[in-house]
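Lab notebook, design round three. We kept the backbone fixed and only want residue identities now. Task for the bench partner: fill in a sequence for the structure below.
Input C-alpha cells:
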C-alpha cells in the first residue's frame, strides 16, 4: 500500500459558543451547566406563537471575531431557516445563515514545522445551537439548556494537507477566541467543537476526491488521530477498487476508528429559506470601527512583539503567547526581574511541566509571577546556582513559599566567597593524593573528578565558575 502516493485535503468547521449572558434569540441564560432544562423558555423550546429577538452582544462578538480572523464583515447578512428533524431541535429547524453570512473571505497564518502557512477562511456565520440528547438503553432524554445558545461557525477553505496542520489551525482559532474573550474554547464541555472534512487524491491531481465529514471532535489530539485514521481508511477503500461514499462519520477515540453515522446532506436537503421572523442584519461602519478599536493585541502580534522587544526566539514567543494568561504572566515576571530569556526558560520548562503534572491552569499556579521573578533574581545575583534553583522551585510549587524563605530556612545560599571555596578545594586535594599526582602528571580528565568531590564537600552550594577557577589554580601545585 503506497500511502505516500496520495495527499489529503482537509477543511475544518469550528463551532464556537459565544460567552453571552443570554441566548441568541431569547432571554434565557446561556451559561453552561444548570439543572436539566433549567435554562429554557418558550422561544428556545419552539412553542407556537413565539418570536426570536436577536442578541446584540452576539453580533458584536461576531464582528470582533471576523476582524481577528482577517474576514470581510458584511454590511448586510441574512438569517435563514435550516430545516431538519432531530429530537433536540424543538422547532424542526435551526436559525442559521446561509448565502449571506456575517463574515467571509478571511485567513489565518499558522506555523507548521517552522514554516508559515496561510489557511483560507470561507465564512463565519451566526447560528443557534441545538439541544443535547442522551441515550439510556431503550429510552432517550433531551436537555434543551444548550438550545439557542449563540454559535459562530467558522468554515475554512480545504487548504490543509496533514492532520498536524488541521490541529495547529484549530489551536490558533481557539487561541484567538480566548484572547478576544468571546468563547472559552472548552472542548470537553462542547463550547468549541470541530467537524473535519477529509478527502484524498493522488498526488498531482487537481480535482478533489469525495469527502467525508468527521463530526464533533473534542480535542486537538483526537483531531489528528481521527483525520489520520480517515485518510488511511479512504486510501484503503480506493486501493481495493471501491469508491468513497460522501457521508458523516463519528470518531470513537477508544477504538481510534471512524464509523458511518449517516449519508451526508447537501444544502438543498435542508430547504434553506430566509427566516420570515428576522429582518436582515445591517451593520454600520461605526459598529465595525468600534469593534476594530476594541480588539486586543492578538497572539501572533504579541509573539512578534516578544521577539523584537525581548529578543526571544520565535519558538519561545509562540509557546508563551498561545494563552493570554501565560503571556501576561511572562510579562509580569520580566517586569520584576528584567531577564526575559531566563523568565522564558523557567516558564516553558519547570512551570509548564508542573502545571501539566498537577492539571492546573496558570491562574491557579502556586508560584506567582512575582515569586518566579525573585527566583530568577537570586540566580542572577549568584545567591543560588541553577541546580539549586530547580530544587527551590519544586519546593515553591509544593509549599507556596517564596524562594528567599526556602533558601534561608534550608541554608541553600550559594558559596561565592573565594577563600571559603579555597578551603574546600584544599581539603579535597589533601584527601585524594593519588588523583592529584596523576592529574599533575597530565591526566586532565581527572578534573571532573575533583569538581564532583568539591561540589559534594560543599553540599552543592559552591559557585561552579568560581570553583572551577580555584581548582585549576590549586591543582597546578
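Proposed sequence:
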Amino acid at each position: 500500500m503506497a500511502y505516500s502516493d496520495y495527499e489529503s485535503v482537509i477543511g475544518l468547521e469550528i463551532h464556537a459558543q459565544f460567552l453571552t449572558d443570554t441566548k441568541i434569540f431569547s432571554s434565557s441564560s446561556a451559561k453552561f451547566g444548570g439543572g436539566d432544562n433549567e435554562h429554557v423558555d418558550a422561544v428556545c423550546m419552539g412553542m407556537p406563537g413565539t418570536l426570536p429577538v436577536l442578541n446584540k452582544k452576539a453580533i458584536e462578538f461576531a464582528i470582533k471575531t471576523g476582524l481577528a480572523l482577517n474576514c470581510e464583515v458584511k454590511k448586510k447578512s441574512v438569517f435563514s431557516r435550516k430545516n431538519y428533524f432531530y429530537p433536540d431541535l424543538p422547532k424542526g429547524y435551526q436559525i442559521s445563515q446561509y448565502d449571506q453570512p456575517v463574515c467571509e473571505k478571511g485567513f489565518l497564518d499558522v506555523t507548521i514545522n517552522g514554516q508559515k502557512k496561510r489557511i483560507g477562511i470561507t465564512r463565519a456565520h451566526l447560528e443557534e445551537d441545538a439541544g443535547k440528547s442522551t441515550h439510556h438503553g431503550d429510552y432517550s432524554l433531551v436537555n434543551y439548556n444548550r438550545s439557542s445558545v449563540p454559535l459562530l461557525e467558522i468554515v475554512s477553505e480545504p487548504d490543509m494537507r496533514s492532520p498536524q496542520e488541521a490541529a495547529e489551525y484549530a489551536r490558533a482559532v481557539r487561541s484567538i477566541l480566548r484572547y478576544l474573550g468571546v468563547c472559552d474554547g472548552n472542548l470537553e464541555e462542547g463550547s468549541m467543537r470541530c467537524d473535519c472534512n477529509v478527502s484524498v487524491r493522488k498526488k498531482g491531481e487537481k480535482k478533489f476526491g469525495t469527502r467525508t465529514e468527521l463530526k464533533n471532535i473534542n480535542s486537538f489530539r483526537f483531531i489528528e488521530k481521527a483525520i489520520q485514521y480517515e485518510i488511511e481508511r479512504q486510501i484503503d477503500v480506493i486501493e481495493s477498487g471501491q469508491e468513497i461514499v460522501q457521508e458523516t462519520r463519528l470518531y470513537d477515540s477508544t477504538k481510534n476508528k471512524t464509523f458511518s453515522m449517516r449519508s451526508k446532506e447537501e444544502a438543498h436537503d435542508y430547504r434553506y429559506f430566509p427566516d420570515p421572523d428576522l429582518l436582515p442584519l445591517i451593520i454600520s461602519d461605526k459598529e465595525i470601527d468600534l469593534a476594530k478599536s476594541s480588539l486586543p493585541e492578538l497572539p501572533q502580534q504579541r509573539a512578534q512583539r516578544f521577539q523584537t522587544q525581548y529578543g526571544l526566539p520565535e519558538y519561545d514567543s509562540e509557546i508563551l503567547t498561545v494563552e493570554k494568561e501565560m503571556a501576561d504572566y511572562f510579562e509580569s515576571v520580566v517586569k520584576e526581574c528584567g531577564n526575559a530569556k531566563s523568565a522564558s526558560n523557567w516558564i516553558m520548562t519547570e512551570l509548564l511541566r508542573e502545571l501539566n503534572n498537577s492539571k492546573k491552569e496558570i491562574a491557579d499556579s502556586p508560584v506567582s509571577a512575582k515569586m518566579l521573578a525573585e527566583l530568577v533574581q537570586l540566580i542572577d545575583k549568584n545567591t543560588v546556582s541553577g541546580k539549586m534553583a530547580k530544587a527551590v522551585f519544586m519546593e515553591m510549587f509544593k509549599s507556596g513559599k517564596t524562594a528567599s524563605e526556602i533558601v534561608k530556612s534550608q541554608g541553600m545560599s550559594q558559596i561565592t566567597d573565594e577563600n571559603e571555596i579555597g578551603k574546600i578545594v584544599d581539603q579535597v586535594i589533601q584527601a585524594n593524593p593519588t588523583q592529584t599526582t596523576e592529574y599533575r602528571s597530565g591526566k586532565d580528565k581527572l578534573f571532573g573528578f575533583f569538581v564532583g568531590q568539591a561540589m559534594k564537600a560543599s553540599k552543592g552550594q559552591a559557585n561552579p565558575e568560581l570553583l572551577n577557577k580555584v581548582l585549576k589554580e590549586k591543582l597546578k601545585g
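Keep this in mind before ordering anything: The first strand starts at residue 6 and ends at 17.
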